[in-house]
Design brief:
By secondary structure, the chain is mainly α. Among the domains are: about 35 residues; about 40 residues, no CATH class. It is about 50% helix and about 5% strand. It has three helices and two strands, in the order H-H-E-E-H. It has a two-stranded antiparallel ribbon. The longest helix has about 35 residues.
């Protein structure tokens, strides 16, 4: 008779657990349904026909670039253009540099003669 009593207790506990789980689930579902049926205040009002805003775009990182020697600078990219790492952005006009090298070689050659 004792085994029979244990089985009954287990069945009653299992039933109580199932009923508690079902009640908890139905309460959660009722809360979700209530939250889903609520109309947001903004949706009840008429949406504006246009929106305006202002702001400022700033780069994540700044860099100051300079050359070791002076001269005319030729820019190789346009403002706002996307560039990749290692891409040349500007270069010096080499005509003045080539002329300076030519003069230095001529002066050196004149000393050796």
């Amino acid at each position: 008779m004792r085994k029979h009593t244990k089985h009954i207790i287990y069945v009653v506990l299992a039933g109580a657990l199932v009923v508690a789980a079902w009640l908890g689930y139905s309460q959660l579902r009722a809360k979700d349904t209530d939250a889903g049926s609520a109309v947001p205040v903004a949706a009840a009002q008429e949406a504006p026909s246009s929106v305006s805003a202002s702001g400022q775009i700033v780069p994540l990182r700044w860099a100051q670039l300079s050359f070791l020697v002076g001269g005319q600078v030729e820019t190789l990219v346009e403002e706002g253009q996307t560039v990749e790492a290692g891409q040349a952005l500007a270069q010096l006009d080499e005509a003045e540099l080539r002329h300076a090298v030519h003069e230095a070689r001529a002066a050196q050659a004149a000393r050796w003669q």
